[in-house]
Structure formats: C-alpha cells, structure tokens
Amino acid sequence: MATSVIELTKKRLFAQKRNEKVKRRSVLAAGIVDGDTASDALETVLRIRPASSPREVSDGFLQIDSSTHVTIRHPTRPGHGEQFGFNTVVPISTTQREMYSHSGAKLVRAALDGQNCCLFTYGASGSGKTFTMMGGPGEDAGVLARTMESLFAMLDGKMYGSTDIRPTGSSYISRVGITEEKQANAFKDEVLERVNDGECQSGDWNSRRRSSILRLNPELLKPGNAPEPLKEPIDDDSEFLVFASFVEVYNERIHDLLVPVDGSSKRAELRIRQDAKGPFVGGVHQVQISSAHEAYKVIDAGRRNLNVAATRLNEESSRSHCLFIVKIARRLTAHRWGVSQICFCDLAGAERSKNIGGDAKRLGESKTINKSLMQLGIVIEELRNNQKNPGSVAVSFRNSKLTRLMQSYLTGNSKTIIIVTVSQNEKFAEETLNSLKFAASAKTVSLGRDRHGFKDMTKMNMSTIHDTQMNASVMFKTMSGSTIDQYNVTRGNESAYYSRQPVASQEDTISSSETPVSSLTSVPSGPASGSFDEDYRKWTKLDLIDDLIYYRERERELVASVLAMKNAWKDDEKLMNEERMDFDIQKNNWKVDLHNERARLRNEYNSSTEKLFREMKILKKSLKESKEEVARIEAARVESKIEFEEKLKGTDAISTENEELKSELKVLQMKNQNLEAAAKDNDSKLEKQLAETRKLRSSLAQLELKLAEKEDELLTVKTTRMSIDPLDSNDTIDFANFNPPKARSSILPVASSTRTQLNSTADLMSNIMEDMSKTPEALQSFSDKPDSDDKVELYRQIQDLNRQLREAKKEATESAEQKQSNHNEALLHQIKEAANKEAELNSKINALELEKEVLKKRSDRCLLRKEKENLERDNEVLQSKVTKLENLLASGNIENLMAPPSTPSKKFKNTTDNLDPVVEELEKPKRATTRSQRRLSDSTNQVAPKRNLRSRK
Ligand SMILES: Nc1ncnc2c1ncn2[C@@H]1O[C@H](COP(=O)(O)OP(=O)(O)OP(=O)(O)O)[C@@H](O)[C@H]1O
Questions:
Q1: Is the pTM of this model over 0.80?
Q2: How far apart (Å, rounded) are the C-alpha atoms in residues 538 and 525?
Q3: Where is the Kinesin motor domain (predicted)?
C-alpha cells in the first residue's frame, strides 16, 4: 500500500516536471517572455468640431473635463453622463498647427528612426476628419501637409513656400473659401516663420530642384534644435529616399488614386499582398518625392480621383477610406536600405441612412463604409482581448480591406495615433457616443504584439532590403520608376488634371532626374513598353519576386525555428535521458516490488491451499455425520409415517366418535333442560305444599290450643267430680295402667291403617277435621259419661291423637322434604353425570387436537428431513468437487498453480484463468442449493393442499 502511494507521488511529480518543461518550451516558441509588459498603446486624440452656428451648440452636451477626459450627456438616458478618457483632448479652439503638434509631429522622428507609423482620423460624417487630415491652405493646412513639411525639413528638403508649388487643389480653396493669393501669402508666412524658428534653413527653398537623395538637416541635428533625439543614432551622411503612394478603399475595392480615371473604363482594382512584414497593396504607384511640394502634388493629384459625394451632412462627404502612404528608405550599408513608412488614413465617416438621402448608390456606399468601420471596431476589441489572453484568437484583420491594410499599423512595433473627431451638436449624440466608445476601446490596445496577442520580439518593424530588392519591391512598383515630374498639375482642367507621361524606362527615369535613382538601384531595366500588358507582366513578375522574397523570409524563419527546435531537441534529449534514468530507477523499484508481490501471492496461495484442505477435512467429517443423521432421520421418518397413518385412521374414528358424543351431549343437554324445567315445577309444587303445610301447622296449633282448652276443661271437670266424689279425692290415677277409653275407636282410626292413610297430608287433614267435627259430640258424650275411666281414656285418646298428629305432621313434613331432596339429588346426579360426560368428551376432543398437532409436527419434521436430504445431496456434490480438486492438486497441477508468473500481468491472468473453473465449480453447489431450496418450497406448497384435503375428510 505504502509503496503504491510512493509510486503514485513519484509519477505525479514526474508528469508535473515534464509538463512544466513542455509548457516553458511552448511559451518560448510563442514569443511570450516573462515579465511581458505592454509597449506604447494606441494614442488617441479627441478633437471637437466647433459649431458653425450658436444654435448648434447644446449646453452641457459635451463637456471637456480635463486635457484627457470628456463627459457626454447620455443620449438615451436623460440625466446620465458618461466619461471617456483620451491621451489628449484638445480644446475646441485648437488650431491646425496645435493639432499637428499633438499628432503628426510625434510621427516624423519615429519614422526616421525606422518605425512604421500611422495616423488616422475616425469620426462621424461631417465631424471634421478630412479637415483635420488635409485641411486647407495656409494656417488651415492639415496634419498631413504639416507632417510632410516637417519630414522634408528634417531631411533638408527645404521646399516650402513657392507659390507655384503650394497646394493648389481647387477643393482646398473652394472648401476653405479663401483666395489663392491669400493662401500663397499665408503659406509663405508660415515658412518664413519656421525659418525664423530655425526649423528649416532659410534661403532658396524655392530655387532649385532637389536631389532625390535626401540628407538629414544638420541644423536640426544640432543639440537643442531637435525636439526629440532620434532613437538610433543616424549618420549625418545617411541617405534617404522618399516615396509616396495614394490609395482609396471604395466599396471594398482598392483603387490607386494616382492612376488617372478614364470615364470609359472601369478602374483597376488592386490586390492586397503580404510579406514578412505584413500586408501591403500590390502594384500600387509609388512616386518618388523629394520635397513637401512634391508631396502636395501627389496628394492633389490623388484627391481629384477620390470618391467624394454630397450627403445631407456634408457637401463633400468622403465616400471612401483614403490612405496616403509615405515610404522612407534609409541607406543602412552600401547596398542595404531600411524602409519605414507613415500612413495617413482619412476614414470615411460613419453615418445613418436617414442622413444620406434616397440615392441607392449612396446608401450602398454608406452600408459598406459602416460595415468596414464596424469591422475596425471588432478588430480593436479583439486586439484588446488578445492582449489579455494571448493566443486565444487570431484577430480577424481579413474581414475587410480596411482592417487588412491597417494590420501593419495595429500590430508589431508601430506608432499609431487616432484622431477622433466629434461634433458639438447634440443632434449627432449617438454618432458622437459611438466614436467616443471606439476611442476608449482603442486607447487600451497595446501595440508591439502580433495578431495572436503575443509580444512581437522585433524592436523595429522597418524592412531591410537590398539594393536589388529596393529596385524590385519599391521602384518597380512605381510603374517603372515614375517620378513626381510625371505628375504635372494642370489647374483649371478638371477632366485631365494631370497628364501622365508615357511610362519611361528605368534609364529614362534616371536621366530625367537630377540625382539618378539608378544610383540606388542596380537592376537593369528593360525597354519601356508603356503598355498595360507589359506592366501587368512586370507586376506578375514582381509579384513572383515578392513571393520569392516572402518565402525566402519564411524559409529563413523556418531555418531559425528548426535550429531553435534542434536546440530544444537537445534539451529534450537531456531531459529524456534524465527521465530515462528516473524511469530505470523506477523500473528497478517496480521489479523489487513485483518480486515481493509474487512472494506474497505465493505465500497467500499456500496458506489458502492449506486452509482449503482443512476445510475439506471438516466438510468430510460433517458429511459423515450428516449421513448418519440422515439415516436416523429416515428411520424416524418411516416410523412417524406409519404412526401418522395410524393416527390418521384413529383420528377419523375419534372424529366420528366425537360427532356421536357431540350429538349425545346435545340430547343430554336437552334432557338437562327438561329436568331443570321439571325441577322448577317441583320447586313450585314444593312451595305450594310447604304453604299448605304452614296452613296445616297453623290449624294444628289452633287445634292444640283448643285441645289444651279442652284438657283444661277436662281437668276442671275432673276436679269438680273429685270434689263431688269422695272416692276421687283419695284415689290417685295410675296413668301407667290407664287404659284408653273405649270411645277412642270412634274418635281415632286404627293406628296402622291411620299411618298408611296419613302418608297423604290431605287425608290426614281430612281425618283430623273429621275427628274435630266428632270431638264435641264425643266430648259431649264423654262429659255425659259419668265414669272417670272414660275420661282418662279420653284423655289418653286425646294425647294419643295429639301424638299421632304430631307424628303424622312430622312424617308428612319429612316425607315431603325427603321426596323433594331425593328428587333434587336425582336431578343433581343427572346433571353431574351429564357434565362429567361433557368434560369427558371435551378432554377426548382436546386429546385428539393434541394428537393432531403432534402429527402435524411430525409431518413438518418429515419435510425438514426431506430438506436435509437435499442438503446431503448437495454435500455429496460438494464432496465430489472437493475430490476433483484433490485429484487436481494430486495430479501436480498445484505446482503450475503455485509457480510465480514471469511477467505480472500475463501470468497472473493465466493463474486466475486456471482457478476460474474451480471457482465456478465451487459456486455451482450454491446455485444447486438454491435450486433445491426452490424445489423444496415448491413441494411444500404442493403438500399443503393435500393435508388440508385430508383434514377436511
Ligand atoms: N475644426 C474645424 N474648424 C472649422 N471648420 C471645420 C472644422 N472641422 C470641420 N470643419 C468644417 O466642417 C465641414 C465638414 O468637415 P469634413 O469634410 O472634414 O468632415 P468629414 O468628417 O471629413 O466628413 P466626411 O466623413 O463626410 O468626409 C467642412 O466644411 C470643414 O471645413
């Protein structure tokens, strides 16, 4: 157990270690560095367009809180304000010059340092994007013009102020509404001012053509003059070449604005290509420029081709996103050039369809514009998410042409400034809120990362190219090296505002320049064709060269990554060796554990076999015992069966007897009831007799009283007589010899006959009454008798009668009582007899019941015996299995079973396979037992009704 826990812990640690190493490698490969911090974020500048009339100003709608924050009154939630932060919030009264210092000025040095820069304006239609970017003449010159001036001032291309080279676009003049004269003067003033400020050299800024090769302005390089030191020291003699291109994205189509628009033919659409440094527009005109003036010429030429249309909001609303790209090539070595660029992007304004008017074309344009702007918003959001979770999603730059072109400026080490323009008018609150939200989101986007959110390890995104590549990728893209001179601005002729010279050969181009461009390129150029097909072929060839360069770059990257992988592989090998060693140690540990486990299992097996033998012996013994028990039970069963059958018969007889007795009992009970009724009758009769007896007694008592009275009378008579008869006075009466009077017979009946007659009380009473009726006459006759003997005799008779009466009474009473008691006794005897018989019968019934129960128990025992038999049978089966096992063990298979497996899994499986049938066999009796039990229970269920039937019988 303990070993397994240790093993598990080891394994877990092992896995953890490996995971950490893998993770570290993948992180290195992905370009995430520990302590990765965001580089400069996108810079946002907010400009609020002043209202053209005081009526447009809504009080408190848009409030500038500080130089970085504004609060807008929420358009849908009245009373609620929402605050937004920017890098800079310029005051409403900000001039174009100030605007430049907050934006374009920051890009020039960065571009010269070799960084790609971008400045784009974002805002609703009519909010002042174009005004900020392009501006107007003189003081109204926009950020683009001022940046160009600054750039060429830095590059010593002092080309300001010439009246014939100032921006002459009619649009500027018409839109700003100032005369050309004024514009020229203002421009001149500004240049002079700059000269005074030391920004550019005084002198012949309009005198001669400049060399195409530019050098840095030594004045500006002087310490103190440079507003910002250059990041990388640049040699004073560094040579620069500047190229300009101008494209527009209109309805998701890219057009070169430097290609003249021929009303009859469709404008050629440019493709987006991609090299190691990111996407670019393939086949676009790149015009070499050497001064701000030349830049203006290019801008002016391009702007004439811009898709501008009137909407309800803006008379000259931009219907396309336009990108003016300035490429700065700096010679790094004799044959290598570093190319950086500044992109000026004037986006078309987002607008609601109701502000456009009914024109379907305008609506379509607006839809595309809004869609691409929405896509830009999505890209910004994705960039934001990606920097939180690098690698979570690849930013969807490809979803629109605009975002695709912006990719280079939103990833890598670019410097990008967004000028957000909003209106002061509350009417455009919704648009303003959307612009502010976009800016707030963009402000949090960190640059210096790739499109997956991983940090871009390259410090600069400047492309380095060879002379030949320069020739191929830059110069040839300029349509065989066009120069600015080929763009002759023809004012007043809007339909053909410039006339492009027939495409010249490289040589022609060189000869036409004061400083030949070919001095930078060593690619021999072919004869000038000027035909579109020729150009197309060249473009295709150049595309192929581009691809080749791209793939070479990719190859280099791959080689580098392969090398890195090889190094990683070496590390891996090291790691693997370590792991292998760990694994070997682990393996040895496992071997030891395995050996121990085998030994343990062997011991377990031996002990279990011994235990099995012991159990077998016990089973044998118990089997023997159970056999004997079975025999005993069998004998008892037979006996009890016979007994049971006999008893069953006896029970039948008893039950019939029982029935008879029951009927007898019923008869007796009826008799008893009759007797009880008779006893009751007798009792009532006895009571009547007793009442009669009581009557007789009372009459007897009366008679006795009368008798006593008569005796008294008699005594008085006697005494009288004795007083009369002297004889009587001397003589005493001998009562012993006194004979009863003869008349007695007339008074009393003969004794014997009388006794018999007195048995009946009624007779007795009638006799007495008869005597009594006779008595007065007798007494009369007696009194009449003079003889004393008669009197004695009478007396005696009376006494005798009295006695007889008493006796009779007694006899009558006794006989009645005797009779009654005898009768009662007889009845009681009969009742007792009946009760005894009933008790006897009940005891017999009870005995039968007991017998029945005993028989029932015996039958149950019989069933148990049967069950036991089944068990015995099972035991026998078990014994046979045990014997089989014994045989198996005896046959030597035990050795095989006990032999330790060579490999743990396989051999132990075999061992268990060998044991499986045995286990199965051992399991069988159990199943048999359950089956026999089931059978037994079935048989019990079947027997029960039979018994019931019998008992019913
Ligand atoms: N800061 C400002 N000061 C004075 N006028 C301005 C300012 N900003 C814009 N305007 C004027 O407002 C009008 C519309 O400006 P602009 O054409 O630059 O808008 P926009 O945002 O480019 O519109 P769209 O997207 O439709 O092209 C122009 O006539 C311009 O002169």
A1: no
A2: 11
A3: 41-445
